[in-house]
Design goal:
- With about 300 residues, the chain is of the alpha+beta class.
- The protein has 2 domains: about 70 residues, no CATH class; about 190 residues, Glutaredoxin.
- About 50% of the residues lie in helices and about 15% in strands.
- The chain contains 10 helices and 11 strands.
- It has a 7-stranded mixed sheet, sandwiched between helices. Strands 6-7 form a two-stranded antiparallel sheet.
- A hairpin with a 4-residue loop joins strand 10 and strand 11.
- The radius of gyration is 27 Å and the shape is elongated.
- The protein starts with a helix and ends in a 6-residue tail after the last helix.
- The N terminus and C terminus are likely disordered.
Length: about 300
């Protein structure tokens, strides 16, 4: 705690008695910042860093021009990804693994619901492709059985598999995070990608289970040609970027407490120093203003 003692000495020199009174609060805040701070690099608790990289990879993929890939659909028919871009139609791409017991079926069910809602306004002006990313187990048969749980019409809502190299390259280009766990299951992000008719990734839609309405919004932008310009983030958004992180497991943005506490401690320390250095002058200035506003005695 040598750093804490040094900070204490500096604040005591600046503030004197006022800091002595608030000394217990200082140590409470400092301890909170230390114990809630992110683990050092190389520690085993890497979830926060992994999630950060996952979201960054997804954001980086926006604007990427997709390569062509050969896949096999639920009926055993080989096709190329570029086949979708011959008819000037946007494409929605999602990933699942067929052995997933709960999360993937929930995501696909939510995607189907969002697609059905979008078709009420946009009709059949877009296509949907769901791809199995577990190349060790996802087969034509398993992807078909999986797809039949959600639709019996695969014309505009297709399911497909690919070989290991294809899936690795495609998921990387689309910024889709997935990681195999020790038990053979996967951690993966809840996300679908919206691809423009020219094969360029337009936008990611995160948490389709809770924000499915954004699918129609993004597709409408492409189909109507009214793509909004992305302005600089607002102050509130910037605060969220710093103090919140996206958690694909809970499908929400959650407070990043280490960052939040760190900002809070810094804010308190800075305010104490400001009050100590300029507080007296500010009070004297206010008194002079108040005194100058009084009428002179007769």
């Amino acid at each position: 705690m040598e750093t804490g003692k040094l900070m204490e000495r500096i604040l005591f020199d600046c503030l004197g008695a006022p800091f002595r009174a608030g000394r217990p609060l200082f140590w409470v805040l400092l301890c909170a910042a230390i114990f809630l701070s992110p683990p050092a690099a190389g520690s085993q608790q890497i979830d926060t860093e992994t999630l950060r990289k996952a979201v960054l990879a997804a954001e980086w993929a926006e604007g990427v021009q997709l390569d062509n890939y050969r896949l096999v659909d639920q009926d055993g028919v080989e096709f190329e990804l570029y086949d979708y871009f011959k008819d000037d139609r946007p494409l929605v791409i999602g990933f699942i693994y067929t052995r997933c017991p709960h999360i993937c079926p929930t995501i696909t069910g939510a995607l189907k619901k969002a697609v059905d809602e979008a078709r009420k306004e946009l009709g059949d002006s877009f296509d949907v492709l769901t791809i199995g990313f577990d190349t060790d187990h996802d087969t034509v048969e398993s992807i078909r059985n999986y797809g039949l749980r959600f639709t019996d019409d695969f014309k505009r809502f297709r399911f497909a598999v690919g070989d290991r190299e294809t899936i690795e390259k495609l998921t990387k280009q689309l910024g889709f995070f997935h990681r195999r766990k020790d038990d053979g299951s996967f951690d993966h992000i809840d996300m679908v990608s919206i691809v423009k008719p020219d094969g360029q990734v337009y936008r990611q839609v995160y948490s389709i289970r809770t924000q499915g309405y954004k699918l129609k919004e993004r597709l409408s932008e492409i189909i109507s040609g009214q793509i909004p310009e992305e302005g600089p983030p607002s102050l509130i958004d910037q605060i969220k970027y710093f103090c919140y992180r996206y958690d694909p497991y809970s499908d929400s943005y959650v407070i990043d407490w280490p960052v939040f506490i760190g900002f809070f401690v810094q804010f308190v320390v800075i305010m104490i120093i400001i009050v100590a250095v300029w507080g007296g002058r500010f009070v004297a200035f206010i008194k002079r203003l108040a005194g100058g506003g009084k009428s002179a005695p007769s």
